[in-house]
Description:
Elements: E1 7-14, H1 16-19, E2 29-35, H2 39-42, E3 50-54, E4 57-61, H3 62-70, H4 74-80, E5 87-90, H5 92-99, H6 108-132, H7 154-166, H8 176-204, H9 207-216, H10 220-239, H11 249-256, H12 262-274, H13 276-281, H14 291-309
Parallel strand pairs: 2-4
Antiparallel strand pairs: 1-2, 1-5, 3-4
Helix pairs in contact: 3-14, 5-14, 6-10, 10-11, 10-12
Amino acid sequence: MPAPGESVIFETVYGSRAYGLATETSDTDLRGVFVPPPLAFTGYRAGPEQIEPSAERVLFEIRKFFRLAAASNPTVIEVLFTDPAEHVTVSEEGRRLLDQRSRFLSRLAGESFGKYGLAQLHRIRTHRRWLLSPPAAPPDRRDYGLPERTTIPRDEMGAVESMLQDGRLAEAALPGSFLDLLDRERRYRAAQREWQQHQEWTRSRNPVRAELERRHGYDTKHAMHLIRLLRMAGEILATGEVLVRRHDAEDLLAVRRGALPYDDLVEQADALGARLHALAERSPLPERPDEEQLNALCGALVDSVHGRTA
Length: 310
């Protein structure tokens, strides 16, 4: 439970049950917003920005919630647009927040929802690579033509790479032998990261998700959310609406059941992602939300809660 003095102004069912994509094994996840007591604003000790009373329940401190929503964080935007039937707590201030929720929407949603979706695709591709061709052993420096110990100190290597990336240093200014050594060190470090990530993935795999990957060759739950996020990005940009309760639930659940071969999934995801730029250019939404208005709304809600609970 929230600590004494913290007021939950809005809480809703979130996730698969709110999307209409729940299965018999789905948890009931809750997300909400709380206003901390006045001392959290006036004292020198900051209160928590997020409270997790249980694994399925997360409450955001109102200022963090506003910051994330203004940046079109998909999790937080979805919380604001769940179906009223999913609402668990709606105080007077929570109702005012919901009445003003469209003020958070901007073209940033296309970028943020798109990035979240494409992050799912990156995981799918990485896990599929590990399924089909897992790394057999940790990388050895000798395989990259490198001595047992690096001859370039790590901080020097990082500084040179940074200057090459931002244009402060041109490759032509460096000896070819140094550039070759730097490239081999980069490839070795990338292989190290790959090995470590594969080991962690192997140790921590969810048995249910592992079975999906074994059966279909990729994580179909990731795939379902990949398609959902990219479709939502397009919908928000095109219409200014956030459709959390999915009208395409049966189609998305079919993706989760493995209806799409891997190549078809990638083709569909690429096509959905490619159209986002054009949709953003003609979207009815503003480039960014009016943060002055949102800041004023946040302050008004906090003042209202503190006035009511004084």
